[in-house]
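Section 3.1: Structural characterization of target chains.
Under the original work plan, the team committed to producing a structural model for every single-chain target entering the pipeline before any wet-lab resources were allocated. The record below documents one such target. The sequence was received from the expression subgroup and is listed exactly as submitted; it comprises 124 residues.
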Amino acid sequence: TWRALGQRMVPALFPEIVSDEYLTEHWSASRRKTFRRSRNKLAAYGPVELKLHQNPESVIPALDTFLRLEADSWKGEEGTALLSKQSDELFIREVVEGLAAHGNVLMSELTAGDNVAASALNFM
């Protein structure tokens, strides 16, 4: 049984509609500089791309990458990553697979060349 306990509004960035003019208008010079510096560092590894996965065939491999990245981070070191406990891993896989079958999961990956630099899991 699924029960929503609450909803909240969160910001979202849609790269395909955000122009340099938008960033100039809405971001400080310091934030734009940091963004450019970070983008250039990533570009040294290859083309930088944002990949979105919503169909079940691409969500599941993206989930595997997400879980691996999370386990390789501080969460893995602290023992709080989803791969740290088999029951947590089984739970998240069941939830994602079930929701992905109905188009209710969006996985995003920021890639630099062939490497995934960041990943996010979102339920819709």
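The longest helix spans residues 56-71.
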